Amino acid sequence: MFRPVVAIATLTLSSLAWADQPCSVDIHGTDQMTYDLTTIKVPASCKKFTVTLQHPGEMPKNVMGHNWVLTKEADMQAVTEAGAKAGEAESYIEKGDQRVLAHTKLIGGGEEDSVTLDTAALKKAGGPLVFFCSYPFHSTMMKGTLTLGG
Ligand SMILES: [Cu+2]
Known about the structure:
By secondary structure, this protein is an alpha/beta fold. It has helices at 13-16, 61-64, 76-86, 119-125, and strands spanning 24-28, 39-42, 48-54, 69-72, 102-103, 112-118, 129-132, 143-148. The longest helix is centred in the middle third of the chain and has 11 residues, at 76-86.
């Protein structure tokens, strides 16, 4: 017997946010060592802003791991160098590194992780702000800018 397929619309936070500006963003880190975003704009209305990093690839994190790290632009180089020394077990972030304003853990293909930013604290930190992957050498390709109140 023929049974019509009932399509259930799945509303996600991002699709609901057409009218209002969303206080969240999804960013993808791929097997090709890229992010799919080079700029993230945090709307002025957001007190908190959640970044979800997804890895749609298949490669494991010891080969093509990615994280999402936020620092002032001036700190990026030093943070990546310290992170490389810290190693994979620390998600390539030096323990207690005060220059790191926010970060996800290191993930491999099929995984995701989120971090929520406090926009008032970020305003105090000053800028310009950059995000990048701190896996060794990835930040040459995997980086972008984050702006507040746009
Ligand atoms: Cu990476």
